[in-house]
Design a protein that fits this description.
The protein is of the alpha/beta class. It has a single domain, classed as TIM Barrel. The chain contains ten helices and ten strands. The strands form two sheets. Strands 8-7-6-5-4-3-10-9 form an eight-stranded parallel sheet.
Length: about 280
C-alpha cells in the first residue's frame, strides 16, 4: 500500500508552502564544478532565466547552490560562496513568488541568504556546523536536514553500514531533535536521507524501498536522486542521459511518501508526479 501523505504547511520565512501534494524543488547550481550542470548557470542573468523557466515548468521551490557537493568535491571558501549565491537570491526574490532555498551548511551563508530573500536552508551537514542550529532558530526559516556519511571529498571511497536504513533514520531523528531542542520550530523541519552521499548503489535502493520508515519520523521527506550515479549505474547512462531513470526514481519516492523531490528536469518530474497522484486517487 502507498504511504500516506502529510498535509502540513512548510513555513519558509513568510512564503508558506502547502504540502497537501508532492512538491518539486528545481536545482539551480551557480557553480563551475557540479557533477551534472557545473558552469551552465554561473552568470547571474543565466541563473535567473533558468529559475524562471523551472517555475514555469512547475517548480514549487528553487534551490540555489554555490558549493558543489559531488563526490570528490573540495570545500569552497566562504567569501566565494557568498559571491556566487547572494546576488542570485537577491534577484530571484523580485522575480519569483515561490520560496527560495539555499544549499549551504555554513551559518554565515545562511544568514546572508535569508537577508537576501531565502526562506529555506538546505543543509547537507544537518546543522552540525558550530552555530548552525542557533542561526536557523533565530532566522525563523525552514531547514532541510540531510544524512551524509563523511564529507563530499571522501564520502564515496568506502561507505559502509550495518543497517543503512536504521542508521540513516537514527541520524535524522537525532538531528531533528537537536534542531527542536535548539529552538527550530517543528513546522520548519524537512528531512533528507541523502541519496548518493556516502552510500553505495545498493544502499541507495535500500533506502528508496524503505522510505515509509523515514516518513514515520514525523517530518516531511525530501529526496534528491536526479541524474545521480544510482541512476547511471543501473541504466548505463551518462549524467546528461538520465532523465527517464531520474523520473522513475522520483515517481517511486513519491509513491513511498516523499513530499519534496529535488530535480534538474522539472517539467518531466512534475508530469510524472501528477500521474502518481492520479493513480493514488
Amino acid at each position: 500500500m502507498a504511504a500516506a501523505l502529510h498535509g502540513p504547511t512548510l513555513d519558509c520565512g513568510g512564503r508558506p508552502l502547502s504540502l497537501n501534494r508532492p512538491r518539486v524543488m528545481g536545482v539551480l547550481n551557480v557553480t563551475p564544478d557540479s557533477f551534472s550542470d557545473g558552469g551552465a548557470f554561473l552568470g547571474r542573468d543565466q541563473a535567473i532565466r533558468h529559475a524562471v523557466e523551472m517555475v514555469g515548468d512547475g517548480a514549487d521551490i528553487i534551490d540555489v547552490g554555490g558549493e558543489s557537493s559531488r563526490p570528490g568535491a573540495d570545500p569552497v571558501p566562504l567569501e566565494e560562496e557568498l559571491e556566487r549565491v547572494i546576488p542570485v537570491v537577491e534577484a530571484l526574490r523580485g522575480e519569483l513568488d515561490c520560496p527560495i532555498s539555499v544549499d549551504t551548511y555554513k551559518p554565515e551563508v545562511a544568514r546572508e541568504a535569508v537577508a537576501a530573500g531565502a526562506g529555506l536552508i538546505n543543509d547537507i551537514r544537518a546543522l552540525q556546523e558550530p552555530g548552525a542550529v542557533q542561526a536557523i532558530a533565530e532566522l525563523g526559516v525552514a531547514v532541510c536536514l540531510m544524512h551524509m556519511q563523511g564529507r563530499p571529498r571522501t564520502m564515496q571511497e568506502a561507505p559502509a553500514y550495518d543497517d543503512v536504513v536504521e542508521e540513516v533514520a537514527g541520524f535524522l531523528d537525532e538531528r531533528r531533535r537537536a534542531a527542536l531542542d535548539g529552538g527550530v520550530a517543528a513546522e520548519r523541519i524537512v528531512l533528507d536521507p541523502g541519496f548518493g552521499f556516502g552510500k553505495t548503489v545498493e544502499h541507495n535502493y535500500a533506502i528508496l524501498r524503505s522510505l515509509p520508515r523515514l516518513t514515520a519520523l514525523g517530518a516531511p521527506i525530501l529526496v534528491g536522486m536526479s541524474r545521480k550515479s544510482m541512476v547511471g549505474k543501473v541504466t548505463g547512462r551518462g549524467a546528461g542521459e538520465r532523465l527517464a531513470g531520474s523520473v522513475a526514481a522520483a515517481s517511486l519516492a513519491v509513491w513511498q511518501g516523499a513530499q519534496i523531490v529535488r530535480a534538474h528536469d522539472v517539467g518531466a518530474t512534475v508530469d510524472a508526479i501528477r500521474v502518481v497522484q492520479a493513480a493514488r486517487g
